[in-house]
Amino acid sequence: MRVLLCNSSRELFVTPAPPLALAILGAVLNQRGHEVRCLDLTLWMQYEEEVKRVLRDFQPDVIGISIRNLDAISYPSAISFVPAVLSVVRNIALLSGNDERGRGGLPIVLGGAAVTICTEQILRSLGEGYLAVRGEGEEVLVDIVEALEEGKDPRLLPQGVAFLDSEGSYVERAPKLIQDLDRVPTPARNYLDNHSYVNPWDERIIANVQTKRGCPLNCIFCTYPSIEGHGLRLRSTARVVDELMEIRYSFGIKSVFFVDNVFNIHHEQAMDLCQAIIRRKPGLQWAANLAANERSLELLPLMAEAGCVHVALAADSFSDQMLDSMQKGASSSLIERVANRCTELGLEVFLSIIFGAPGETPRTVQATLEVLKRIWIRNRWEGHRAKLIHLGMRIYPRTRLEQIAIEEGVLQPGTNLLMPHHYISPTIGADRLIEIIHRELGEEQQEFSVPGIGMVDQGMFDLVTENAQLYGNHACLGIEEEISRQPVPVIVPVPVEN
To answer: What is the Cα–Cα distance from 351 to 373, expressed in whole angstroms?
Structure first.
């Protein structure tokens, strides 16, 4: 069958990422004998004409649409991607012969992280004609395509699918997780416009690589266990390094971001991978998400030797009380040591903080700010988005934070979380939290980004401007004109019910 895979992202307010999932799905489908075309709508401002052209020229039998992110999280305002993405999905449905509820034309299958997080909410927003994949899509999408090819109803599949039945009831089946990740073929990057993606730290073309799936950690706000499961599954080091060599020498790409939720969650694998990169010398610079633990201090020099230049360190707090509340499993002093070690090794650090978790007080906020300022002064961090602060915690379905918010009366049971709702602990409240941040960081607003209240450092401002120029290339539109002509990310007030 002919399968059209679409990336529905319309995000210009963060660095757009190469749609790795589409490249993997394309490789899997191609391996099973299906013909594939990938359409990355991030790169097309006036995307409707491109969709029409591909539908006419390729004539697909089924369309898969990936939805990655729901919003850019920060209280008291948030950039929601939902209105724009749902508009894209409905437009593709109409262009492919369906009505807006996905009925009557080509089968449309929805997938991606956002679909797994808010499956029912997205399906109810769109209609009963759409079929959704929950969790990993490689095997499930093949099952769906081959069921359609055989004239069978893919809604009868035993795993991985979700839909609205004929009576409007929501039906979901358990995700189908792949235990042996080496069975998944190397991403078919030839389906992507690779050279349209540029990383923020050295302005090189960038590729995304995944080395593992699953997360055994217990952070109360995180969606990764819902998306990938708690069980950790690893790719072999040899397969990962083979992919890095292909990225460098077949595609000419020199920068990589390891998109694992935590690069060093399995210490031995991370060490082995760094050693293999040093031996085989793919000639890449790379970045990764890092968790602060004692063994990360041992790992960091090896990462630097292997070509790492940028570390995203989700500190979340520098108050031990709040780190315990969020179930982070690390101490403030350890996170500070890891941040300082990164700087000693010449690694740029992206540091993020979340204020407002359960039990947050003016005292715990002050404790975090004191350490944050000390790190900033000691290390003289520069560069894009080096110090990002979120006010409030975005409440996602199926997380411990959702349960806490309901128990405390901050959130009503059954609240639709497709649009952003934030938790701010009643022990501090939103007004008091914002007052402290304004007072403590107001004079340094060019150094710390707090986007929810309009404090954006120069690096982040420049990045947004650059993204608007770069990813508006096909239509040659500035960001102001793009915002005015269609519903790309919408800034909405975020309710906090307390």
So the answer is: 12
Q: Quick one: tokens of 191?
A: 């389906």
Give which of 357, 381, 386, 373 is closest to 456, Cα–Cα: 386
Say how far apart CA 106 and CA 22 lie, in whole Å. 19
What are the tens digits of pLDDT across the range 419-478?
999 999 999 999 999 999 989 887 665 567 787 887 665 555 555 555 555 544 333 222
Helix, strand, coil content of the chain in percent (nearest 5): 40, 20, 40
Extract the tokens encoding 449. Answer: 């980004």
The pTM (predicted TM-score) of the whole model is 0.89
How many angstroms separate the CA atoms of 480 and 482, rounded? 5
Tokens of 92: 């593709």
Rounded to whole angstroms, the Cα distance separating 196 from 42 reads 10
Torsion from C-alpha of 370, 374, 375, 377, nearest 10 degrees: 140
Residue count of the chain: 498
Alpha-carbon distance values, 191 to 24, 27, 232, 326 (Å): 10, 9, 29, 40
Q: Is the pLDDT of residue 332 over 50?
A: yes
Tokens 């969709």 label which residue?
Answer: 51
Cβ atoms of 197 and 183 within 8 Å: the answer is: no
Q: DSSP secondary structure string, 280-327? A: H----EEEEEE---HHHHHHHHHHHHTTEEEEEEEEE-S-HHHHHHTT
